[in-house]
Amino acid sequence: MMKGDPMSETIEDVSALIVNKLLANPKVPRDINGSSKIVEDLAFDSLAVMNFVMEIEDEMDVSVPLDRLADIRTVDDLATCIVSLKNGG
Amino acid sequence: MSIFDKFRTVEQRLALLTAGGGRNPFDVMIERPVSSTVGIIEGRDTLLFGTNNYLGLSQSQRAIDAAIDAVRARGVGTTGSRIANGTQSVHRQLEQRIASFFGQKHCMVFSTGYQANLGMISTLAGKDDYLILDADSHASIYDASRLGHAQVIRFKHNDPDDLHKRLRRLEGAPGAKLVVVEGIYSMTGNVAPLKEMAAIKRETGATLLVDEAHSFGVLGPTGRGVAEAEAVEADVDFIVGTFSKSLGTVGGYCVSNHDEIDLVRLQCRPYMFTASLPPEVIAATMAALDDMLAQPELRTQLSQNAAQFHAGLKGLGLNVSQQVSPVVAVTLETVEEAIALWNRLLDLGLYVNLSLPPATPDHRPLLRCSVMASHTSAQIARAVEIFAEAGASLS
After folding, report:
1. ipTM rounded to 2 decimals
2. Could you read off the pLDDT of B271-304 as tens digits, one per residue?
3. CB within 8 A of B95, min separation 6: which ones?
4. How close is the nearest chain B Cα to the Cα of A48, in Å?
5. Architecture of domain A6-86 in this structure
6. pLDDT digits (tens, 9 = 90+) for B215-260
7. What is the pTM of this model?
8. Chain A residue whose CA is closest to B172
9. Which stretches make up the Aminotransferase class I/classII large domain (chain B) (predicted)?
10. Structural domains of chain B, ranges and CATH numbers in brackets
């Protein structure tokens, strides 16, 4: 997979990357997956969500506008949003 | 299901704070001020190190006299907004004074500093625009991002490279880009690297707004803030600030050389739909500005006092802000530790601010202290001593 090629990253790839990133934090439960809810299952407050998204933004070289976060519940939702932004949406 | 169900979480958190007989940190009452630096709290003389009254001007005799004269001449209130109910001559005078102080063509005065940020940012950044915020921005800036309709992007706190990266990602995107930073960050006392930010603004063609709420009257050769200190005022499109810190009154302002300011007045809801500043506040503000201009030594004293207090706390081994500014934040590891220390400081006669996550930048609690020009060296030494005594009694 070539980094920077918008068509090369699937939602599954991005979702897996997010899960890995989350698991690097020892406070996050070990049994998370793409359908884990970011606020409820991971006990993130609003600031923690924004800061975590910032880390993913760097990894993916994309900026996620804050208003998009309002619609994001699960890890897969975040992955879908990032892939859509990378494809210009 | 009650409308108050959602408040149960905050109720539980508050109960944890006050468990074991601790005070409610959000309900401290200063029974009366003795001076700018001492207030009566719980019946005792208490050193005030948490009031943001950087130059001590809340007790300025010149401002007090001006407020009394204004009340006698004009009454106590304006009873409405300038757009709907009329501007008074004193509003114009204040705007001219502030614009002239900053060497800018225009000034728009707001009823509070919060409304100045809320109004300017939400109005300037429209639906198709991008609002690019420092991650540690004040609540007024985040609230502005919710009142407006721009797409909001955060960059890492005080990190010009990260700002540059995020602006680069927006290359080619239609819509204006408004970058918002603060001069001195209110929680930590960190100072913005404004020279680097200004260079990025020039390179990318973004618009730059700087909130100098905590740096006005504090930094720069004449007290105009970080933009003046860094000699980048020409690159700043909008400077926002407040009268409620260095000038000791209340109210906010935005100064700019852009002639469109008068059009902003007609679109800016937090300016249009609220009562304007009352005459006595305006008179006191102008008098406090006179005081500030007449006594540049206040700034030198403030800077010396900040250095003494910062060095004193650092000498105790406390984890203090890296940069020396009148905001000196002590970072603690746990909320329990912060609550115990804050209560003990107040028992011993020292008032500072307890700041708890998520209102703090990195999930750790802060004891946020603010230094004044009017603190004496002995008061600062005593405050440091109280920190030492409180720390020792808890360990």
Report:
1. 0.83
2. 999 999 999 999 999 999 999 999 999 999 999 9
3. B106, B107, B108, B109, B253
4. 8
5. Orthogonal Bundle (1.10)
6. 999 999 999 999 999 999 999 999 999 999 999 999 999 999 999 9
7. 0.94
8. A88
9. 45-385
10. 11-48+296-394 (3.90.1150.10), 61-294 (3.40.640.10)
